[in-house]
Amino acid sequence: MRVLMISSEVESLARTGGLGDVVEALSLAIAELGHEVLVVTPLYGVTRLPASTMRWPGTVPIRFGWGEGDVRDASIVEVDPIAFPSGGTRRICLLDDPGLFHRQGIYDDMWGPFGDNALRFAVMSRGGLEVAARAWSGGPDVIHAHDWQATFAILYAKLVMGEHWAKKPCIFTVHNLAFQGVLDETSLDKLHIPRDAYRPEVLWQDGHVNLIKGASALADKITTVSPTYAREILTPEGGFHLDAHLRAHAHKVVGILNGIDVKRFDPATDTSLLAPYDRSSFERGRAACKEALANELGLEPGAGPIFGCVARLTWQKGIDLFLPLFHELVDRGARIVVVGQGERSLEDQLMWAADASKGKIAVRIAFDPPLSRRVYAGADFFVVPSRFEPCGLTQMYAMRYGSLPVVTDVGGLHDTVDAECGFVATRADVSPLRTACLEALETFGDRKKFSARVATAMAKNFAWAGPAREYVDLYESVRAA
Question: What is the DSSP letter of 329?
Fold first, then answer.
């Protein structure tokens, strides 16, 4: 089977969060099952190109509007393909259009979001279809578009590129429904979208063009990144004003829990750790990593627990629900580590808390993957206080490294954390989160019980092989329909 994936992020090249991690790992896992996977993404100014690439001869014309001259010519840079014994391959092609993509950011820079993001990702999406048409005679068997940036691929395939493309099965994955791709009506004419699709059943939403609404209406299947999130988006609380539309398409909605790359995230081989360890040696290894983390971040030495948190500092992630608990946790002997960046007000509040409790609270305003791994390895507890969480990867990384998660009972957190391997706040609020944190402290005091939970958490299997098979089954079902 030939699978085309279109995504604005791929972890090994350019990413801001979990989308890139998922596309990277899922594409490899599906290829490992024996399929041909082609990933198309832009070549940004911040892209980390590998040493060996190949540039296709000539350029690929990419139509982005209705006018005769509304065509951009992009070069194609291909990363060396990865072949598997199963016969499957994973290829990545990058669209090289300097005017659109060669900037110091994926979606924004220090001055804010790019004003032409809709055009940029329309070109990415149409470019992905054009690249696939040249990579495979007859094009792909399945088109898999990720998040609002790739919604244009489904719109173009189903509405403007002719019968051959309209018959291609399309899968649309919602990674976070909070970001929907909402545009002005004028974008229809500017971005090659037929006006007859601007109606409530497809693209019209409250007087605007809603790209996720259109893609979910036209896709053959809609997937979310966890089973619980698939249910949540059908509710007024989790549907972000699209719940009624999505309920009309509920027969197409499938929740498939994300996996993690267990080869890259392995405490036994992780070179960013002072003392690598596995399930048979975690007590000694994690003790060394905990001491090293405390030294690195200037925390006072001590036998008390460390609560770690690695997150985007946004309302969604609920860091403001964790902040009110800092003083009590520190008074009870805990230390706290937070790594992340995001909203300035949250950054400031965290820095004030750290300044007020030097040696007890450490905050790093940064996107720092190696430090994040050291937090997974050195923190006793890993806090994910999200108000909503489509899947979440950090809690799975933390369990892989033996840090027990303290989470709210939402989305993918509900699907991955239970009382045997972590601590669950019944809802996203300060009081239930406090109860879960205090339960964690109590468990820490019982070393036998605590160690048993760590061993259970590390034994959890979040590898991508299972989810990849679910996606392949889904692809085959839409091809057969």
Answer: H
In this predicted structure, the answer to whether residue 110 has a pLDDT above a threshold of 90 is: no
When computed from its CA atoms, the radius of gyration of the chain, rounded to whole angstroms, is 23
Strand 170-174 and strand 2-6: the pairing is: unpaired
Give the tens place of pLDDT for each residue, 48-92: 999 999 999 999 999 999 998 999 999 999 999 999 999 999 999
Paired tokens of 284: 């000694």
Domains observed in the chain: 2-259+465-480 (3.40.50.2000), 282-459 (3.40.50.2000)
Instruction: Name which of 403, 460, 407 is nearest 436 in CA terms.
Output: 407
Q: What is the residue whose two structure tokens read 């994955």?
A: 173
Give the E-state strand segments of 43-114 in sequence order.
Answer: 53-55, 60-63, 71-83, 89-96, 108-109, 112-113
CA distance 447 to 442: 10
pTM over 0.90: yes
Cα distance between residue 432 and residue 388, in whole Å: 15
Beta-strand runs (E) in 284-360: 306-310, 335-340
pLDDT at 204: 98
Tokens 């996606």 sit at which residue? 471
Cα Dmax for the chain: 72
